[in-house]
Amino acid sequence: MGRAAAGRETRLREQLWSSLERPDAIADFGQPDQDPTAEKKKATWPNDCTWFELWILPCLRRAISVEEEYNAAGAEVVLDDEEDGEGWLATHGVQASKTEEEEDIPSMDTLDIGTSEGIKSIPTYFSSGKKEEEEEDIPDMDSYEDTGDNLVAAEPSYFVAEEPEDDNILRTRTYDVSITYDKYYQTPRVWLTGYDESRMPLKPELVFEDISQDHARKTVTIEDHPHILAGKHASVHPCKHAAVMKKIVDVLVSRGVEPEVDKYLFIFLKFIASVIPTIEYDYTMDFDLGSTS
Amino acid sequence: MIPFKKEFTFDERAEESAAMIANYPSRIPVIVERFSRSNLPEMEKRKYLVPCDMPVGQFIFILRSRLHLSPGTALFVFVNNTLPQTASLMGNVYDSYKDEDGFLYMCYSSEKTFG
Question: Where is the lipid attached (Phosphatidylserine amidated glycine) (chain B) (predicted)?
Answer without folding.
Answer: 115
